[in-house]
Records
---
Amino acid sequence: MRVPINTITPDTPSAEVIGWAHEIRDLGGLAFLLIRDRTGIIQVTVPKKKVAPEIAETIRAISRESVVRVTGMVKPEGKAPGGRELIPDAIEIVSLSATPLPLDVAEKVPAELDTRLDNRFLDARRPRVSAIFKIRNAVQHATRNFFFDNGFIEINTSKIVAAATEGGTELFPIAYFEKEAFLNQSPQLYKQMMMAAGFEKVYEIGPIFRAEEHNTTKHLNEATSIDIEVSFTDHIGVMQTLEDLVRDIYQFVDKTCSDAIADLGLDSFAVPEKGFPRLPYSEAIEIASAKCEEDIAYGDDIGTAAERAIGEEMGRMYFIVDWPSSIRPYYAMPYENDPEICKAFDMMHPRMELSSGAQRVHQHDLLVEQIAKKGLNPENFEFYLNPFRFGMPPHAGWGLGAERLVTTMLGLPNVREAVLFPRDRHRVVP
Ligand code: ATP
Ligand code: MG
């Protein structure tokens, strides 16, 4: 019976393991084989004179990264990983690996990100890489638990749409029979429609598609968005939900992923403190223009340099609130006493934006007016606008980028590290 490698201790009498040949060292009379499965590594020590001749022969035939099965006696060995070694009674090559390997799984030879992504199946055999996806798994699990416990309904909305959420050129057109269609850039309009349906609290974890030509370390053309929409609350209410969720996710990862955190070599894992500060946009701009070389003025979007400068100043997770209405989408609710600013926010990690949200406009006529003001044609939004005529409750929500959350949580240099098969300007394969 095969056992996971990390369950074998120096006291285990005997074991059967199946895994990949991580490293093979043949010193003549003595051979060492490191076997790796997803839980860890064990050293197989082969004193050739003392084992059956077939074993010595099989050892010679094993190429690195072949799948092998080994059964044998376990012995304490201080110098081996985990303080134990396996002396084989039998070795079998289950699946032979071709040579040469396109990528060194043992990481003796560093590889470029492109080579790694081209050979993602091999790259992901490295503990440091699989650790990222074990943590991403925990992030999504914690997210679903959080929402389930708080009475949210998980929804799955269509990714094939006829109109853009926000207009603009960020859409991928697709061939959809005789109609024009696109890949959705956000579930925004659908989750709002579910407020009209009376669901009150919904969330979705799904892909968003952005045809931006960016080639940056924080943009993907296909990303995963954690989206919520909540009725009978405002921007303040959903900002609190966002902070609570993010802290909850960090706590869950801290509690359940210690092995993966160690594999990543992170020496500290800090759960963000309660009470993310709320910085008005106008003050954020002042900080950015004082600290940045480039000219930044009120009414500008907060670009990468500004984001960095403000993040340095804040030194922790924070919100930027009270944005000019001119640079937020039509569905952001303007303040009654000052419609030039709106009830929109961004949640920021010191390194980058993680989430955008707002209280939404729920009044039909105001929404039509705001759509037109952005230079969009309200007629293209009829399917979306119609529900606003039949009792739309006040509501608010946000979208949180899953990859950016994982990237910043783990200090990864590039958001592509947090996606198995990233899609960017140059990459649609594998
Ligand atoms: P940015 O200004 O950084 O390009 P955005 O403001 O266009 O982002 P939103 O439309 O506000 O993005 O989307 C909400 C969240 O979804 C973002 O805060 C981010 O975490 C994530 N997100 C959006 N676009 C991308 C992308 N191209 N790649 C990775 N994550 C993204
Ligand atoms: Mg945004």
---
Amino acid sequence: MEISVLETEKKRIKPEDSKLGFGQFFTDHMFSMDYSEEKGWHDARIEPYSEISLLPAAMVFHYGQAIFEGLKAYRTPEGKIQLFRARDNFARFNRSAKGMCMPEIDVDFVMQALKKLILVEKNWVPGSDGTSLYIRPTMIATDSFLGVRASNTYRFFIILSPVAAYYAEGFNPLKIWVSTDHVRAVRGGVGEFKTAGNYAASLTAGTEAVEAGYAQVLWLDGIERKYIEEVGAMNIFFLMGDKLVTPELSGSILPGITRYSVIQLAQKWGITVSERKISIDELIEAEKAGELKEVFGSGTAAVISPVKEVRYGDKVIKIGDGTPGTLTMKLYNALTDIQYGKKEDTENWIEPI
Ligand code: PLP
Ligand code: COI
């Protein structure tokens, strides 16, 4: 499929790197294409970033068929631009598509489209420490129809946003809050897909956490309400004694690409990594026994985020002395060195643009 390019006549002023924050600014162009049963994916185009026109009956507004991805392009010290594990994100996008009864995309084609879009927007890729170009591929259901069924037509688009740290805390350790009243997802549901409704389902508890002075919610499983699952926008790891432990992929948590990367690096360094069920009680006991050495979250937006406190009801679990742990720092440095092209890509994770 050909990709047409329509460049905007009104280029925006790029914000300074120091003003970026997360997800507030968007580049001048986007990639879009449409799907219908008759034509499949068609009309692939790079076009000015602008409003999308949909009828009020468009199915995405009513029954929530919406999926997305989050990945990043990084500026290397030589000024080149590179992607981190982008194909893995598109593979996960296709798993989400299947899970939400939506059509899959051709990974090679969207990789080509993404690279073309980033080349059009190359001046938007920031270069200061900790900044990157966040990439948000999205698919929405566009049939104008109110019966409950899967839509027959869809729009796929990719938008780009120059970003800095996701959390206001930056790399300073976070406090996270275990929700006892709400659950995010259940096994057999859609928790393992990156679909918009999972985030909508997290907002009430997220607001409670923020009101109580915590950055995000640490979710427990939706059935026994006992086993740790993940945090609002990241997976979670615990260094217990000398073992790195993370919740197993239960079907209700997102299989994070950063999570896989952390596991791979830690194993390479000879650390035992265990993917298993961890109950909140085990965490409390581990802290009492002095075994809970480090806690951190992993995610594209969150990178590696150290955690200094977990609150569960009236119990406060404090981690270490409140500063990022040694392994947390080592993982952060190793991962970002590869992402930013400061060290050799020993894992074959990088795709240059
Ligand atoms: N869990 C949730 C709910 C997320 O939104 C994210 C972010 O994408 C993650 C985990 C981490 O996934 P990844 O490392 O692929 O960014
Ligand atoms: C990501 O890390 O890419 C995410 O999607 C998290 C988020 C901002 C929802």
